[in-house]
Amino acid sequence: MNIVKSAKQLFEELLLEKNIEIISQTEKTYIINNGSSKLNVTIENLEKEYDRVKSPEIVRLFVDQILNIQEVPSEWQKASKRIFLSLEPSNYDFENIIYEKITEFTNMVAVYVDENDFGMTWITTNMLQEWNVDIKELRQVAKENMRELFNSVPLKILNFNQTPIVCFETNSLLKASLILSPQLKSKIKSLIGWPILALVPCRDFVYILSEKNLDLVNRLGGIVLKEFSCSGYPLTTEVLKISDNGITAIGKFRFE
Question: I need a surface site. Which of 27, 76, 82, 168 has the fewest CB within 10 A?
């Protein structure tokens, strides 16, 4: 009889295997010593992802990544190469964070993503002071980096009831956030037209449709709600319209 282990059990076994000391722990949080520093780790999102994909490899990858988390560089010249824009749910405390409200339920946050594409840090006003840069320069750099990232990501077209849906083929933390890229219109318009509709229920999921296919969106509600509820990094169940006027929410899927 095969006993399926929980994400928590696998996580602790891997720490033991790698000789990583657990200094203290609660049900979902740990303080560990990787030999050079102490790390605060929360496994709540890991557990959700593990329950969704049912693969122990998710836990192994998580452990490998947290042991290679890089600190945010104190020099602007180095940090600026990894500054991006991230779509984040608005139900957080954004005090001192550099952000812009997008919809009622989402914000656009300036972030630093480490070179391993695992650690993401929200940019604060204190960090700007340390770098000696202003918000205008920060956003210009972030937009340019988003442009380059978008250009590096292959686009894939799915056919749902003979209707094209554009997806992004990438494992980047910023997969759903690519809808914030300045390149979005020029890349998408030739495929399905403009304006467009976007569904971004979680960080690693995005569906983009032509505005002309609004009638199809309701059929995708079940997928959106499932991805939102099962993901460790939920974003929004809103239906987003993206046009020359920016991003607006024109509807929202709700749990019954």
Answer: 27
CA distance 60 to 14: 7
pTM comes to 0.81
**Weakest mean pLDDT among 14-18, 50-54, 100-104, 120-124:** 50-54
Q: Which two tokens stand for residue 247?
A: 């991003």
DSSP state of 31: E
Cα–Cα distances in angstroms (integers) from residue 59 to residues 5, 18, 43, 71, 197, in the given order:
11, 13, 10, 22, 34
The tens digit of pLDDT for each residue in 175-220 reads 999 999 999 999 999 999 999 999 999 999 999 999 999 999 989 9
Kind and range of the H or E element at 191?
helix 184-192
For helices 221-230 and 44-53, angle between their N-to-C axes, nearest 10 degrees: 130
Return the SS3 of 120: strand
Contact present, 46 and 62 (Cβ < 8 Å): yes
Q: Which residues of 155-178 are buried (b: 16+ CB within 10 A; e: fewer)?
A: eeeeeeeeeebbebebebbbbbbb
* Nearest by Cα to 102 from 241, 252, 201: 241
Query: What span, in angstroms and rounded, lies between the C-alpha atoms of 133 and 124?
Result: 12
Q: How confident is the model at residue 37 (pLDDT cuts 50, 70, 90)?
A: low
Per DSSP, 117 falls in state S
Q: How far apart are CA 225 and CA 236, in angstroms?
A: 9
Structural domain boundaries in the chain: 7-66, 76-150, 154-252
Classify 174 as helix, strand or coil: coil
Helical (H) or strand (E) element with 251: strand 246-252
